[in-house]
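Thread: quick sanity check before group meeting

JM: Hey all, I'm pulling together slides for Thursday and realized we never actually wrote out the predicted structure for the chain we discussed last week. Dropping the sequence here so it's in one place. If anyone has concerns about the input, flag it before I start.
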Amino acid sequence: MGTLAGHLLPGSFFILFGTWWGFITSIRFIQSKKNSNKNVYRASVTMPCICLPFRKSPMESYLKAVLAFIALLAEAYTGYKVRYRPRSELETQNLVNHSQHVHHHDHKRSTDLVRVTSFELGNAQHITMYSAFILGAIVEVMVHYGVNLPKKIEYAMGIMAFSIEAFLFAFHLHGKEPLDVFVHLLLVYSIIGCIIFCCLEVNSPGQVLFTYGRILFTILQGTWFYQVGFMLYPPTDDPTFQWDLSNHRNMMIVTACFCWHVMIIITGLLAQLWFVKKIFFDWNKNQNMVKRLKAIDGIQEIGRTSHEYYKDGSIGENSILIGKNESSDEDITIDLNRNNRIQLK
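JM (edit): ok, ran it. Output follows.
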């Protein structure tokens, strides 16, 4: 992670999942407001996939595991280092006798140089962090398929993964410049905020603000990874993009940047909520576009009988409703707050 790409990769993951959580949470919240007597908002660790072919699969958990594993392999590959150091220096440090790490290399090099292999300790910490999220994703898949595990263990594993991340970054600061330490400390604060809201969400799954708190601090981790990456590893030598890491006055600027990250993310989540309400609910009352939304979370029937709503997994203008005496002109709302898929009115 000691590169710009190493910070952009995990940052993109957090932004991606946080934005997805916000989209599904906004749908659930609007449904609970429109049908307060029938639909009660309920939070969940993972959000369901609205793609019909994968609606019964824990796609989010699979994606977490795959992306984290790719990042883990990248850290393992970039963490392995090969260096050539003078023999006299190694003898001084009593490293020559470690034959498993030190090898002679006589091809096109002086006999006074010794080949030394090592693994970056920072990369080892990052591998540990990704492993924690992979373990959490595996448990989520097990819960999805009904493995007999303790109740709400998926929340416990998520809290565990974020706690390990916070612990690792809190002790990732030794020997660094003051500004480098400060930006990583702010990252730890954002992770702790995510842990706090996860704990609140476990105890009050019906409070949407706790879910949005988790989403806020998850996206904040992602955007702050971007901020730290561009500060410590600017992509250009232009002095405009260079930060003096030893200048304490820059801490005041960084603190303001952190606050702006929070306010911009909150504004984005409110805009997302407005967009979902206007595009997927209000506008669809007249345009009847709700039919084209891919339904998830089971089937619910209100006041009438239907044998089959879907056939062969096909989706289209008139393929949503397939059954006895059903018309494709019915109004349909997607129900994400129950174990039922769609609701007919």
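AS: nice. The radius of gyration is 26 Å. Residues 4 and 230 are 6 Å apart (CA to CA).
JM: adding both to the slides.
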